[in-house]
Each structure stands twice: as structure tokens, then as C-alpha cells.
Amino acid sequence: MAVALCCVLPAARGTAAAGTASVASRAAGTTRPPASGNRSAPPGAWTDEVFPHPLDLAQCRDRLGTSCYTPHQLRTAYGLDQAAAKRLTGKGVTIVTGIGVIPPTLQHDVNVFSDRFRLPRTRLEFAFEEGASPFDPHDHAAHREAILDVSALHAMAPRAKIVVVGVPVIPGDLAATLPEGYIKAIEQDAGDVLSMSWNDFEQHLQQINPRISQGSPALAHLRRPLVEAAARGITMVASSGDYGGLAPSAGALWPAADPLVTSVGGTDLDLDQYGHRRRPDIAWDASTGGLSQWFPRPTYQKPVTNIVDGRRGEPDVSMSAGPFWVYDSADPQQAGWQLAGGTSLSSPLFAGIAALADEAAGHRLGPLNPTLYRNVHDLKRAGLVDVTAGRSDRNAHPDRPAPPEPPGWRGYPALPGYDLVTGLGTVRHSSRLICTLSRGAMRPPCDLTHPGG
What we know:
The chain has 453 residues and is of the alpha/beta class. Helix content is 25%, strand content 17%. It contains 13 helices and 19 strands. Strands 4, 5, 6, 7, 9, 11, 12 and 15 form an 8-stranded mixed sheet that branches. The chain has a 4-stranded mixed sheet with strand order 2-1-8-10. The chain has a 3-stranded antiparallel sheet with strand order 3-17-16. A hairpin with a 7-residue loop joins strand 16 and strand 17. The longest helix is centred in the last third of the chain and has 19 residues, at 343-361. The N and C termini lie far apart (42 Å).
């Protein structure tokens, strides 16, 4: 199972890191040629450093050679400071997120994060904690994943209830089944939005259970909880992964590639101190995309057949892969502010927007992909913007190699229209996207002809 982090941190004990990478030896083990273009963090520029307080953008760029962002900068970049979206906070909506290792300091650290960035405090709810792996204060990758997931959700939907469930991390076996904590949360109808910052390669899962294949009873059993969640109207969002573009022979990452799930890839932002873009977003070079070996092209992806052919393609959309400030005191020897990111940031950012859309609609919205792809030819109307620069040519988790690639494989480029690194594109105007997803049910009502006002 993979957990997602932004620069290269080892996966949390047997989990496949979807995207959480912290500032540490980012380029080590890279097997693909370096990509050209601007980068927030040049390969090799990161160090696993702790700070007594968050640095501002100028300090980050001067000292670390990278940008670093706060919740308010990302909220501005995605239009959550605009009037129509500003009224929405996630109040009355519950988001469930699964954590492989639950640090005992998680509530405290989110409180420090909230106070620092003037967000309302949230009281986390913990469920099925027995499913989590034992806490190790020195396993920084594992507990930073938990802190990143929750902090990102809270930043986007500050008054939503966040339920943290323990997901069992059993090396060599975990990803063979949907984590038990998720199953219990779904069966008990514990949340409205399910945020998943973990994944595994279809090839790896098939090695564990050779009976899994397209249309097989074994695959139906594996995804039964997701089918149940969709039937209950739960929206599911998952990290696309931090392994770069997967060759067609390698398949994709599950559950991100499940047709019921919205898969979120990563982008590289260049913002000013107020959160305004200095240039269009580009694809984060480790953002994973690919074509599923298990799932044929769903009906909603028919408009992008020229890219996906007859297979389910992922990701569907993309959001910032960081770097993002979090507060981590799980290891008393290294307590302080740290940078993290990857698609483990991208996914909860989008899950937070999904929670705001639930709030606007006044009810659960279920799987979002059919609505997203209906707007493929008018992204501006839906609050999205195409990403046309960058390439997925790097594995941010060299300790966990991707399936074999053809000689010279360089991943996927971001292209005009849908592509296998950033999907349909990234969020530009949250109010328009929320209006679209909620079927125009924002309060006061929004006009889908001229959304976002």
C-alpha cells in the first residue's frame, strides 16, 4: 500500500506512498532523464529540516531553492477567497481519511497549525484506531503523512468534521484488500467524503492475488466497499501516486484508477506572497498517471478516448503537490514546522473542495467524475484550467520502484486537453467548480450559465 508525500520520504511501513514526500534527497534513485522546465524544488535541493516557524516565500526561495505555501496562499490560488466560495466552510459535512500510523500528537499538531494560520480549531474524531500500525516517533514519513492529510483537509474545509480511521499496514498483504477501517467507516455510514492518500500498483496486487483481473469475482470482491460507498452517495477521492507516468504495460494505481473514484494528480505552482499565480501551473514531475489493466474505459471518459483508448485513464484532475507547511511534534527531538507535499497533499485538497460542494448542495453528491467529464470542452465554465506544461518523468519513491518500463521511457507530458499526468486540468475558480458539482445548488443559487458569481 502506498501513502503519498511530496519529496522523497520512505513509504510508511509497507504502505505505498501516494504522495507524501518531505524535504529529503529528492533526486536519489531517479531512473528517468531529468525534465526540462521550471521546478519549485530542484532535484537534490531538499533537506529534512525542521523550522521554529514557517518561512515566508522569499526565505524559502533564498534558503531552500524552492517555494513553500501556507493554507491561505493555496486558498487564494484556488479561488476560495472569492465571495461565492468564501461563504462555504464544510459545516455539516464529514470527511473520512485513513491513516496508517496515527501519531498521539495529531490533535495537538493540527491545533498549532490552525492557530498559526488563523483557522478555526477542529476536534478530530478517531475511529477504528486498532487498525493503525504501532506508532514509532522515529518513523517521520508515517506520522507526517497523517499530519499532512488532516492539515490539508482542514485548510480547505475548516468547519467540516474530520474522522480519522486506522488502516492496517501489513507489509506484503495490506493492499490485497481494502483497509478494514475504510470498510467499517463505509458500512457505518460515517462520512460524506472519503479521502484516500494511499494506493498500490495493479500489477503488485495481481501478484498477491493472481485471480484479480478485469471482470473477475476477485476484483469485484476487492472493490465491493467502493461500490457500497457509491451506492450510499459518498464521494471518493484518491491520490494518483508519486511514481511518475506508468507505462501502458504497467497498468495504473488502485484505488485511484477505480472508475468510482476521482483520482487527483499533482501540479507545481508558482505563487506570489498573496497566493496569486506568477505563471500557469505545470505538471509535478512525479505525478502518477496511467491506463488501467483492470477497468475498461468508463462511459464518462468517452470524450477523451483519443488519450485513453479503451481503458480507464487516471488522474482525473490535479492540484498542488506542495511544498506545504505542516506542524509535526510526533518526534520530540524534531518538533517544529516542516515541509511536505506530493499527491498526498493534492488529494485532500480536492476532497476539501468536494466537501464544500456537498455543503452547497445540502446533500451528498456521490462519484464526481461523470459531472467533471461533462465539462471537458468548457473547463472555464466548470472552474478548471488546462495544464499544458511539464512531464511525469520521476519516481519520488526510489525505495519502491514502479513496474518495469520500456527502455527510454519518460512518462507522460502535460498536453492541451486531457492527459495522463494532470487529467482534465487543475482548479482555478473553486466557486465555479462547486457550482458545477452541486448542480447549481449553491446558496444563494448560482447560475450554471455564468457560474461563480
